[in-house]
Design brief:
The complex is a heterodimer.
Chain A (H helix, E strand, L loop, with lengths): L1 H12 L1 H6 L1 H31 L3 E5 L5 E2 L1 H12 L3 E18 L2 E12 L1 H7 L9 H5 L22 H31 L23 H5 L34 E5 L4 E5 L5 E5 L6 E7 L7 E12 L4 H4 L2 E5 H8 L10 E2 L1 E6 L5 H11 L7 E5 H4 L1 H39 L1 H9 L4 H32 L1 H12 L20 H18 L1 H9 L2 H6 L2
Parallel strand pairs in A: 4-10, 5-9
Antiparallel strand pairs in A: 1-12, 1-13, 2-11, 3-4, 3-8, 3-12, 5-10, 6-7, 8-9
Chain B lengths: L9 E12 L2 E13 L4 E6 L5 H8 L7 E6 L2 E2 L5 H11 E4 L11 H12 L2 H6 L1 H14 L15 H13 L5 E5 L7 H18 L2 E6 L2 H4 L4 E6 L2 E7 L5 H4 L7 H9 L1
Parallel strand pairs in B: 3-8, 3-9, 6-7, 7-8
Antiparallel strand pairs in B: 1-2, 1-4, 4-5, 9-10
Classes of the chains: A alpha+beta, B alpha/beta.
Organism (chain A): Aporhodopirellula rubra
GO cellular component, one term (chain A): plasma membrane protein complex
Main location (chain A): membrane
Chain lengths: 539, 264
Amino acid sequence: MYRLLLCFRYLRTRYIALASIISVTLGVATLIVVNSVMAGFSAEMHERLHGLASDILIECHASGGMPDPDAHLAEIHRVVGDDIEGASVSVHVPSMLGIDFNGQLITRHVNLVGIDAETYDTVSHFGRYLIHPENQKQVDFDLREAGFAETRENFPASGWHYRRARVAYERALDEERARVEAMDREVAKLSTTLPQHPNDSSASEDGLIDEDSPESLASAGPSLGPLLPPELNGGDTSGVAATFDPATEQYPGIILGISTCSNKLRDDAGNVRDHYYCRPGDDIRMMFPSASENPKVLNQKFTVVDLYESGMSEYDSTFAFVRLDQLQEFRGMIDPISGVKSVTTIQLKLIEGADLNAVRDALRKRFPPDQFAYSIQTWRDMQGPLLAAVRLETTILNILLFLIIAVAGFGILATFFMIVVEKTRDIGTLKALGASGSGVMSIFLSYGLLLGIVGSGVGLLGGILFVDNINEVAGVIERVTGQEVFDPTVYYFTEIPTILNPFTLAWVMAGAVAIATAASVLPAMRAARMHPVTALRFE
Amino acid sequence: MNNSSNTPILQARGIRKSYYKNQIELPVLRGVDVAFARGEMSALVGRSGSGKSTLMHLLATLDQPDEGEVWFDGNRVDNLSRRGRDQYRNREIGIIFQFYHLLPELSALENVLAPAMISRSVLGYFRQRKSLTARAEAMLDRVGLLDRKTHKPCEMSGGEMQRVAIARSLMSEPQLLLADEPTGNLDTETGESILQLLRQLNTEDGLTVVMITHDDAIAERADRCYRMQDGLLVDRFENEPANPASASRGNIATKPLARAVSAA
């Protein structure tokens, strides 16, 4: 009984010991904050990585792809059918994206993916990241009228509405330009008689209109039509370049990753703004190899129907999606005789709780790499280095922070030795009154335990409070230092993601308490071994 | 236990104790035989360095003799296990120190309760809490400090602290009180009241009191007096109550003062 009473009294009266556990408190709070932010980041990352990549990816490295995907799927179902929830086939082809922006051609290397809109959403969260709310429900490669990202600030007007306005503007501009040109010619003709004749003052209505000469259009702005050779124009509007009306018609639809056609920049006021090179309703072109044995570069025009923003810059800046059947047709992946179509990729979604690696290994066994040029990977395999790096970072941070707490433990050790020396006479008194050595030891051990609990408990509370208000705290730090803590141009989240894992909290607490208790063992043993007569005489 | 009144309650037989410093033997006690009779108030008197404190520590089993035996109430206690000696100190005897040795974190009442807390587990203590508190309050009342029970030692005077220490030593109803210079740190008047209290406990409760002192005037107040010198018991004499003749053996310098006290 006296042990409890005494160690509670010591706790209340020895402020020096409380000071010595501040480092434990800080260590625990830091550990909790770091762990929950790291967990938040990696969960967000997992979510996004996994949401985009299906569980298992079977890729064929041949440029012509694997023929007859239905037979493959049937075989896959036969091998691991029990674990499969969904499957989708697609064509992945490296390609170059060309965007005409203010008369300049912006090119980007992207991965062009032909997807089957019906099944693609069963293997990944593709639709969720589209900008148009209707497309999030059901992907449609036809341009929608309007309503893109209405909640988004500064998102430019898009869709048919925008397309018609743009076409009308371009036509008016072309007309005006042609008129000015005609007038220039007129002026040139007259210049022999009238050498000085400023253009602008002689604006008259009698200028000739030169219908759509390609040269004039090429320099006229965003319209891409004339840039392309007529034979490559249009998929479903094949060979009708001359009659293609951009105000009412579109090229095959394409969904671009948002970073392929936009830039995050900071304006003068310091706010992050997106600048778009093209938007839904604009036309772009893609250059990609055909699937034949002598690959040729195909140059195909598409109309952007939506943008795609997952928050993973790797995906957002490298992917463009089109319809599978269209891409197969463009690349010549449909056998003209048998009509069998080829794909390059099969994606599988497994049921909840299925063993990814087991399914992968079963598939690898069925399609051994020495016979099939297939690479079969789980999403973890594909993101392995990234996930491993995050894990390593978390582990090292935890070790470092626990070392900090261990340093705090030595502080406690020193303080406890001081307290034991200070309490020498009391220890003698207790022994004279019949307290045993182990009883005296347990006073100091439970004192250490209590200090550890108080210290890490305060740290726990502080850490949880910090994590709960981390974005406000970041805001305050930004205001005070003028330095942005969490830069949205770097990260794709607007807020710092955090996850408080009760298990982590528990082991951080337990570790800190154990360190504090361990630090009190030596002083407590010293107290227990003290000779009562020496202790009583201690001055 | 043997309760017959003719056996001494506490007995030391042939006690030898030496301290070692740099392998040189410093004998402190060189064969001490002493027996304290039940119900008596005795004093061990001697100059500092005479070994009286060491003897007291051995009697209280705070230390162990190199040679010899300590018997308490017909049982040998010096060779008991650690646990047995802890129990002996906790239950059979009460100890009072020159510097009171109260625990500064605890109130007067809690200090008095300390021996009871030490001998009981948390549960055991809580089960008997009411009766124990009542006994502790009675002990504080006995020393006249019941109204100070919530005060911490730092809020008390030396005499009050020594009274609390006495109350604490009485907590586990001991038969024997060992007092190491109980008045050594107090002024004469306060010391006198402590001595009166000890005497009162001796006469009213039949408590055996063994007092250690360097002051002959205080030794005179005991029924029986043992003088120690250089680790040996050199003299043994009985005091008549308030007998001025026996005072002549005392220190001349303290004599008038001692008279004044006893006259007061």
